[in-house]
Design brief:
CATH topology of the largest domain: Beta Polymerase, domain 2
Shape: rod-shaped
Strand content: 15-25%
Helix content: 55-70%
Strand order of the largest sheet: 2-1-3-7-6-5-4
CATH class of the largest domain: Alpha Beta
Mean pLDDT: 79
């Protein structure tokens, strides 16, 4: 999918390129989602710009995620999104060349739609290609802030379940805290990646002075969110530790009960086993009081350890 955006009176005008028609070379932003060979050809013919493959977006080395060459300034950044099969950081490629922005991604991301709704029609925001990059980053940082706020609420509910005396479903708590920490770690990775990319932009000398205050504001927001994410991670570890402790306590209680039951019933079982052997020379077999005596022995052998444990306050 190939979408172009032109700047008209300070507002973005979108056009989805279809068919073999040439692209207007005056566009400011070219957005590609899983481009095919024909769409790559249209971009190459209109702007002389080669679009990298989607596989190249997954490079994790710093030298591969942001660099500058003769074709322009290349940036890679993680955009966090909750897909139906779970949260995932999607790699988005940015190319700044000839005062024009090219974006490359493999999935539709809500951050791009939110950017167009919030800033696309604001004549006071978009002035150049870098304005779009900063706007997309700002939108994604705001989305991550909302995610972290939601995670804090979920984590607080899990904590109440653990701290409460009537909390019983510890397995659900462990699963919930694990899911929260998984999302939190992905959010922190996305924030740290954006921090590195924006730092590279700041050091590259390509950032006009009028954009630096906005870039600094985004970096400050990222710093505060990373601190908040770290706090959530530490709290998740604390809740998980308490949860595992409560699970161990419950298991110890169960083992204590089983051990007590085995100890109580072992002596009676021994007495019953002795008098259940039915040897001919056992004198109690023909004794009239043999059966009552066996019953008394069985009860006494169980009662003695019970009262002994109570005396020792083990029960």
């Amino acid at each position: 999918m190939l979408t172009t955006h032109s700047l008209v009176d300070g507002r973005l005008v979108c056009h989805e390129a279809t068919g073999p028609d040439p692209i207007d070379p005056g566009v400011l932003w070219v957005d590609l989602i899983k481009p095919d060979d024909e769409e790559r050809r249209l971009v190459r013919e209109a702007f002389g710009q080669e679009i990298p493959s989607l596989s190249s977006l997954v490079e994790i080395e710093a030298s591969s995620r942001f660099y500058e060459d003769e074709t322009g300034l290349h940036l890679r950044s993680y955009f966090l999104h909750e897909f139906p099969d779970g949260p995932r950081n999607v790699n988005v490629g940015f190319i700044l060349a000839n005062e024009r922005l090219f974006t490359l991604r493999e999935d539709k991301l809500p951050a791009f739609g939110d950017f167009l709704q919030r800033f696309g029609q604001r004549a006071d925001f978009i002035h150049d290609a870098l304005s779009i990059v900063l706007g997309l980053f700002e939108i994604q940082v705001d989305r991550i802030a909302d995610i972290l706020e939601g995670l804090y609420g979920e984590q607080d509910m899990s904590g109440r379940e653990v701290y409460g005396r009537d909390g019983r479903d510890m397995e659900a708590v462990v699963t919930g805290v694990s899911d929260i920490e998984d999302m939190n770690s992905r959010a922190r990775l996305s924030l740290m990646d954006k921090q590195r990319v924006l730092g590279f932009l700041l050091r590259s000398g390509k950032m006009p002075e009028d954009h630096e205050p906005r870039l600094g504001e985004i970096l400050r927001d990222i710093d505060s969110l990373i601190s908040h994410s770290t706090f959530l991670s530490e709290k998740a570890s604390f809740i998980m530790g308490i949860t595992m402790g409560r699970i161990n306590i419950e298991q110890n209680k169960i083992m204590k009960i089983l051990s007590f039951a085995a100890t109580i019933f072992l002596p009676p079982t021994l007495v019953a086993s002795i008098y259940g052997m039915n040897f001919i020379n056992m004198p109690e077999l023909k004794w009239g009081l043999g059966y009552p005596l066996a019953i008394v022995l069985i009860l006494a052998s169980g009662a003695v350890p019970y009262f002994y444990f109570r005396h020792k306050k083990w029960l």
